[in-house]
Amino acid sequence: MRRGTLTRECEAPKGLRVEVVGGASDVVLQAHEEGKARVEIRYTIRAWGSEAEAIERELRENPPVHWKDGVLRIGPEPEQVELDYALLLPAEAEVEVEVGSGDVTARGFSTRVRITTGSGDVELVDLAGEVRLRCGSGDVRLKRVFGALSLRTGSGDIAGKEVKGDLDVETGSGDIALDGVEGE
User: Fold this and answer.
1) Measured between alpha carbons, how far apart are the two ends of the chain, in Å?
2) Nearest to residue 99, comparing CAs of 42, 148, 144, 138?
3) Residue 5: Cβ within 10 Å count
4) Can you name the residues that pair with 143 across neighbouring β-strands?
């Protein structure tokens, strides 16, 4: 088994769209003020010896980070590789994340954030704009989320503070505890 980290950075034009696809990946999205997009990938290779070396070499030469027509696409994982992602992006980037299982955190975005996860916890902090979340199972934490919020979880608790705007929140089984809510 091998572990490591690799980083890719690129210029981030206005109107940047980011799509992240992962199987069993944790994803952290953080807004920042620079005009660049930075992707850090932590990997675990589930192989040994020369096979692990070959997989690592291929991953480093051709990481699952693709830039085309104003869209930054990240993922999916190659076979025998587990990937976790940490992204620094401009606050106005539109973000879409789809993971089978894994925790997702998004902080500081001001346009559109869409997250779909089969299982895993989700944390949304300091978001403004359109937020859409679909979670099969997992807890959801919200803090200072403003705008149009559509949130569904099949199984899991939803907790939030300072949530304002058009709200559509539902859990199949779990508690909903929202403090400081303003909106419909």
Assistant:
1) 51
2) 138
3) 10
4) 125, 161
Specify burial of residue 50 (Cβ count, 10 A radius: 0-12, 13-18, 19+): exposed
Distance CA 113, CA 95 (A): 5
Measured distance CA(101)–CA(149) in Å, rounded? 22
Token pair for 180: 């400081």
Task: Give the length of the chain.
Answer: 184
Tokens of 178: 């929202």
- Condensed to tens digits (0 to 9), the pLDDT of residues 57-89 reads 999 999 999 998 889 999 999 999 999 999 999
Query: What are the tokens at 80?
Result: 């025998």
The reported pLDDT for the residue numbered 150 is: 96
